[in-house]
């Protein structure tokens, strides 16, 4: 593929289990924090939820006055960004006025339609595209988009029927010069969006996804549940793919398409449902007992503590599972039921949290800990491994509940504990760890402001802890994000 030729440190290979893959070609390998490539989006669309709030070109906060008066669908942060998109927007504008109607009549997702429309209009104006703001950023063509995989046959009749209807309506609304593809080709394009599109974070300092974009080069990067790269907004609709650890020559580069701090089962179900493949990454294929998944989703025997993990195999469905310590056997169903009860409590607490019933949510989470954490009073004499993903998630929600309910010292203790528990199962250079360190620094600052600690030596120690937390956040974000990213700047600012 021609776009890979523009990136000398990478090589395209064919992997029997995953299709095309990118591997490191640099003989000396690449260090953590190295930008593997910058790539300008072939096309992107700000999510409807952020309509009017986010610039359509750089994903900074928009200036509501710099908006298209005809369709009122697209807003920009500056005249420069508006000029950047003008040639494409002129073609899409009349159709955008009808986008709600097309979405409603066809039953097609509004954001998918907007991205398809933008791709069609970009294709018609490819020659007029301005150079990317970052020199050396890879620029792709519609032919590169067509090389991306799709799985429309797996998306079901209902999806295919509604997208075909939506595609037909889009094409009917476009001028003949733009509408040169068939409706079936547009459906395949939608399939490519489904398998390959990237969620791009905003450029606002808020950790939120605000746009969906097509990057034909980044679209060649496969998924791993133990990734060695991250992607993030680099401004001007450009993505930066960075190495999060040293990657030797010949190793495949891989990103994660999902939250990796979930059980193997949950991750595989999510990838099957959303991306339509069975994950063949190393973490998902190694024996459960040798994998970090053993702890992420581990159930322990109360008599033996954390050394008493139950050993089983998800693939061969060994039943019952035996405790590694004392050999006690428990039926797989019993273990599954135990985990499901914990998951149900967490879901209940999250629901209360979402409806701002913080005290109720905290009570449910305390109950969850009493019954499923180390030293639990559960009659089955089981407990979840201390780094089990349900427990760490529960602790994160509990810290937010306590903070909102004014129990700030408890929130501090929860956040500290989350980090201790996550450390053994989550990669240090990950967005999740960076957020946890930021949240810890934040809660210490709140406690200091409210004079939770009065002893001078204790206050000094907490100040040092606050500094260390923000420093850890800065260190991780410097590896994962570009230098000028607002989330990195926000953490640096808190360091003082
Ligand atoms: C974004 S594309 C990645 C590039 C793709 N391999 C290609 O040939 O164009 C995503 C597709 O790659 C394959 N894939 C990616 N990661 C995988 C994994 N961990 N296990 C199995 N297949 C994977 C799946 O077919 C998936 O739909």
TrEMBL record:
Domain SET stretches: 8-258
CDD domains: SET_SMYD (cd20071)
The organism's place on the tree of life at top rank: Eukaryota
MYND-type domain sequence ranges: 55-93
One cellular component term from this protein's GO annotations in UniProt: nucleus
Record keyword Metal-binding present: yes
Keyword field: Metal-binding, Zinc, Zinc-finger
Zinc-finger recorded as keyword: yes
PROSITE patterns, per the entry: SET, ZF_MYND_1, ZF_MYND_2
Alphabetized InterPro entries for the sequence: H3K4_H4K5_MeTrfase, SET_dom, SET_dom_sf, Znf_MYND
A GO MF label: zinc ion binding
Coiled coil segments of this chain: none
PANTHER family: EG:BACR7C10.4 PROTEIN (PTHR12197:SF251), HISTONE-LYSINE N-METHYLTRANSFERASE SMYD (PTHR12197)
Protein name: SET domain-containing protein
Species of the source: Achlya hypogyna (Oomycete)
């Amino acid at each position: 593929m021609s776009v890979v030729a523009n990136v000398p440190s990478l090589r395209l290979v064919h992997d029997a289990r995953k299709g095309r893959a990118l591997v490191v070609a640099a003989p000396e390998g690449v260090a953590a924090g190295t930008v593997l490539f910058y790539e300008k989006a072939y096309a992107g669309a700000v999510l409807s939820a952020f309509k009017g709030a986010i610039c359509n070109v750089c994903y900074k906060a928009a200036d509501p006055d710099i908006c298209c008066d005809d369709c009122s669908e697209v807003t920009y942060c500056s005249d420069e960004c508006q000029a950047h998109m003008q040639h494409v927007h002129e073609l899409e504008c009349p159709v955008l006025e009808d986008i709600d109607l097309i979405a409603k009549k066809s039953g097609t997702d509004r954001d998918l339609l907007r991205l398809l429309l933008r791709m069609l209009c970009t294709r018609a104006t490819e020659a007029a595209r301005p150079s990317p703001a970052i020199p050396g950023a890879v620029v792709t063509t519609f032919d590169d988009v067509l090389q991306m995989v799709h799985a429309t046959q797996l998306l079901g009749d209902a999806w295919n029927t509604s997208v075909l209807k939506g595609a037909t309506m889009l094409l009917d609304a476009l001028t003949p010069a733009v509408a040169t593809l068939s409706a079936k080709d547009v459906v395949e394009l939608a399939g490519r969006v489904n398998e390959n599109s990237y969620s791009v974070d905003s450029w606002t300092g808020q950790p939120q996804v605000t746009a969906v974009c097509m990057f034909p080069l980044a679209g060649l990067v496969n998924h791993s549940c133990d990734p060695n790269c991250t992607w993030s907004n680099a401004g001007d609709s450009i993505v930066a793919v960075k190495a999060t650890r040293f990657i030797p020559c010949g190793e495949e580069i891989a990103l994660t398409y999902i939250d990796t701090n979930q059980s193997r089962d949950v991750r595989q179900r999510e990838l099957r449902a959303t991306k339509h493949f069975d994950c063949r990454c190393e973490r998902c294929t190694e024996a459960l007992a040798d994998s970090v998944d053993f702890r992420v989703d581990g159930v322990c025997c109360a008599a033996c503590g954390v050394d008493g993990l139950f050993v089983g195999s998800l693939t061969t469905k060994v039943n019952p599972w035996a405790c590694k310590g004392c050999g006690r056997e428990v039926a797989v169903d019993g273990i599954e039921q135990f985990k499901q009860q914990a998951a149900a409590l967490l879901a209940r607490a999250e629901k209360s949290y979402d409806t701002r019933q913080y005290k109720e949510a905290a009570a449910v989470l305390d109950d969850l800990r009493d019954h499923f954490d180390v030293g639990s009073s559960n009659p089955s004499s089981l407990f979840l491994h201390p780094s089990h993903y349900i427990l760490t998630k529960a602790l994160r929600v509990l810290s937010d509940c306590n903070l909102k309910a004014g129990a700030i010292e408890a929130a501090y203790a929860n956040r500290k504990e989350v980090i201790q528990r996550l450390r053994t199962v989550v990669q240090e250079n990950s967005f999740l760890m960076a957020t946890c360190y930021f949240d810890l620094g934040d809660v210490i600052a709140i406690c200091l402001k409210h004079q939770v600690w009065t002893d001078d030596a204790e206050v000094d120690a907490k100040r040092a802890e606050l500094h260390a937390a923000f420093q850890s956040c800065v260190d991780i974000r410097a590896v994962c994000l570009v230098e000028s990213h607002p989330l990195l700047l926000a953490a640096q600012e808190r360091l003082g």
